[in-house]
Amino acid sequence: ENEWADLLPALYACAQDGNASLRESAYRVFSSCPYLLSGQSPDSVNSAFGGAFQDGDATVRLAALQASVQYILAATDKQRPALAPMMPQMLGVLEPLQRDGDEDGLTEALSALIEAAEETPKLFRAVLDSLVTFATAIGKNDALEATTRQTAMELLVTLAESAPGMCRKNAQFCQQIVPVCLQMMSSIEDDEEWYTVETLDDSDNDENHVFGEQTLDRLANALGGKQLLPVAFNYIPQMLASSEWNQRHAGLMAVSSIGEGCLKIMRNELGKIVHMVVPFFTDSHPRVRYAVCNCIGQMATDFAPKLQEEHHAAVLSALIPVMDQTSVPRVQTHAAAAMVNFAEEATKQVLEPYLDTLFERLLAMLNGSKRYVQEQAITTIATIADNAQAKFNKYYSTIMPMLLNVLAQATDHDHRLLRGKAMECATFIALAVGKDVFAPDIPRVIELLTLTQQSVTEADDPQASYLQASWARLCKLMGAEFAPILPVVMPPLLTAAKQQPDFAVLEADEDAETGYSAEDGWEFANIGGQQIGIRTTLLEEKCEAVELIGTYARDLGTGFVPYAAETLETLVPLFKFYFHEGVRVAAAAAVPYV
To answer: Partner of 240 for a Cys bridge, out of 71, 251, 386, 587, CB 3.0 to 4.6 A?
Structure first.
């Protein structure tokens, strides 16, 4: 508002002061308040920052880079092209940081450039060659910290996603980046804990090998198969032929990572690719067998239904026996998980010949000693039952009692997820076999689900979401006979539908992870120099609740009348719930049924 006329001259004076701390402070103010420069011409700003990019003090150079990025982001579309001459000087800040071993400073500088790449990728056009060379050199340098290497690669993949056309036109873009991704993927190490762990989680998501997989996936989706596939397959065959297990592992994970982005080209060569990867189901190393399960599972999704229709014999004859490998439960479990992906997109006719051998192995897994093996077995049974429908009848009398026993006996805290999966499986089976077959077990299932619902008292109890979906499937099966159960299922749904979103506003330099963990559903965005956070898991729970309310109103008709008034009072205001489109859509879809 030009209310502090002396501020800008004072900052310019500080930026020229002999004291490095004052110079740094000036650029930090510009970074936090880029609008202070909005009235200045791009040439004058370029001139003011140009000297700072070559300052003798690294902290000043870094602060100037961060300030220049914020100025670019605040500039108008008309102003930005005139700022392109500043880009080479901005990138000039990186090399001294790398040369001096200042990894923290280098990571900060790269992170600032990522912000610019997201919003103004075209400004990088003239410096793209040198940036690719520099960033890939950082990415493949094993002596550097993982965070430093990953941030350098993140800058490049952000450019690919923000300006794919520009990156496709650069002849060296894929040529230099893909080998670095594959190198990172090959850095996986074998450790005893992988084999002995009792609970499966995503604790290795920040590892270089996982980052490499994710980056390759994003590149393929951004640039497409015409650009990426020839480069990737210059390396993948020799990796698969390597005597080193981690090379074979990386080659298989690469195939699964690029499938979605390279779909059109790879689909035409699907038979050759299946023939190339299937032999690894008998590889000597368990981690490679795990990787091929992952590969086939992803391909079953990406190349459906072609994979299921044309290659089921080759795939299932190799995949199903891996579910017998009790000596390596993680491999056994991943094979069953891959079977879920395959079955979800397969026809009844494709799966029917394999049902006996599948259920033989899944029942054995259900009696396994590790909980995560049992959980996956139940999930896979549910998926195959949903596919088989009436063909599942012959297995009902064996499997349903086992599931009910899990619900009745596995009542301790550690078995909550297992119970959730058991109720999911039981209700999927109920829909598959129909009301007549399921009828004798309906009272017992309702009793067990009711007892479970009464035991759910913690906000993070995984049984809650499984319960809601299981009740909805029972309602679909039972129709009007479900109405007496509404007093059990509706109160928690209405509570979830009424809950308000959680927000947090943090300063730019605050550590969001300290009090607002991503594991708890928090997501943050940088807006106006602050971090604005919202807990997205709560929004998803709200959306699911509204969808289920609509399901009950639709399936029960007049049986829903006792809850109609309160439901309308809850749903109609959600037409204007601007935080989540899914909530608005679900509310609009549910109201007519109510």
So the answer is: 251
